[in-house]
């Protein structure tokens, strides 16, 4: 069982540390608090990496001819 810090998880997921903490708070990413720090199992980070999209969907521009 490999535990990753929030910083390490953020690097693997290519998101910010703040976003990792938000995912933990909303229950989308399981984590353990040890002392004052949070740790995430490596398997949970990999599962999150495989299930997430890449940011917001693109806005579609529709051009109307006049």
Describe what you observe in this structure:
- By secondary structure, the chain is of the alpha+beta class.
- It has one domain (3-51): Arc Repressor Mutant, subunit A, CATH 1.10.10.
- Helix content is 42%, strand content 17%.
- It is built from 3 helices and 3 strands.
- It has helices at residues 6-13, 17-26, 42-51; strands at residues 3-5, 32-34, 37-41.
- A 3-stranded antiparallel β-sheet has the order 1-3-2.
- A hairpin with a 2-residue loop joins strand 2 (32-34) and strand 3.
- Helix 1 (6-13) crosses helix 2 (17-26).
- The longest helix is centred in the N-terminal third of the chain and has 10 residues, at 17-26.
- The termini are far apart.
Mean pLDDT: 86
Oligomeric state of the chains in view: single chain
The N- to C-terminal Cα distance equals 62 Å
Whole-number tally of structural domains = 1
Task: Tell me the overall shape.
Answer: elongated
What gyration radius follows from the Cα positions, in whole Å?
16 Å
Give the helix/strand class. Answer: alpha+beta
Topology of this protein?
Elements: E1 3-5, H1 6-13, H2 17-26, E2 32-34, E3 37-41, H3 42-51
Q: What would you say about this model in short?
A:
With 66 residues, the protein is an alpha+beta fold. The chain has helices at 6-13, 17-26, 42-51; strands spanning 3-5, 32-34, 37-41.
């Amino acid at each position: 069982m490999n535990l990753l810090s929030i910083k390490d998880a953020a690097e693997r997921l290519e998101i910010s540390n703040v976003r990792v903490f938000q995912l933990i708070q909303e229950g989308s990413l399981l984590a353990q608090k040890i002392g004052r720090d949070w740790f995430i199992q490596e398997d949970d980070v990999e599962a999150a990496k495989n299930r997430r999209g890449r940011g917001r969907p693109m806005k579609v521009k529709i051009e109307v001819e006049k």
